[in-house]
Amino acid sequence: MNIPSPRLLRFMAGAIAVTTLAAAAFAQVPNSTWVRLNPMHSPPQRAGCAMAYDPVSQKIVMFGGYGPTNDYGDTWTFDGTDWQKQTTSVAPSPRASASMAYDATIQKLVLFGGYNGQNNLGDTWMWDGATSSWTQMSPSTTPPPMTGAMLFPDPRSKRVDNFGGYDGRLYGLTTWRWHNGRWHKLHPAESPSARGWAVFATDPVRKQTVLFGGLADINPVNTWTYDGLTWTRQFPDHQIPYRAFSGATYDPRFQGIVVFGGFSGADVNDTWLWTGSDWMQLTPAGSPAIRESLGIAFDEAHQQTVIFGGQSLTSLFGVTLLHDTWVLHTN
Asked: In 116-171, at which residue ranges do the beta strands (DSSP E only) sit?
């Protein structure tokens, strides 16, 4: 199984895990429960896949990840009920820990980077939901090869931005933007400290991207927001426990960003919400098993947050890879 070496660093990261839980009263949020689906078809067990919703095809798209013996280079779509494997003439090479986000200005998904078991990758691909096809891009400027980078829709321009990652030696702290077929290095007045595999997602209503935690050389137990111009450190009243390798996505039913699972000194299966200014813990009636490195996306067509797979860490070198599909229901 090809697992990037920085994953071993999470055992050291447990020493800085924060255990303060939100216990105050918050604005009313819907009652919820995680429900396991039983699709007729399903991708094989995996972790570290790239997953995002494609408004053009109105389906969730998932690419790659690592399995029991190898990395995957397959593409799957989810229509709210079933998974379908896509056959394409060209596709990104097999990899794990790539990142993918939707660019509304070009109506395509952008995928960047990852790790193939030997090297960090720095190639950029676009998925066209209208033709179900991949196209490799040849940008004149690009971020260095990175695994665990964070791609997200820019809250202001709706283009795709990229922050951080791990190049095999150092964590990154540069913010990039995909525009006119190449990556542009941005220079925000403030920036989070270098990190990879952080909690991240964009709230399109508040026009705010949130970033928390991750793997880093410097304490990453802090919350940052990005407005498309600069990063701002937030000091919320309540603190989500430290974590990396989590899943996060904006869910309009909760009017905030839902976070599930990850590694927090040990693998966890708790559900949290970023309200735009504070963290609060949700208490769904049911929940998937503990996991990290899962796929997550909000299915706009069916108004539900979807998670797939991931891994459950049982010891330093022992993992259980998963291939279950769950949706977050509200009452």
From this structure: 120-128, 133-136, 150-153, 160-163
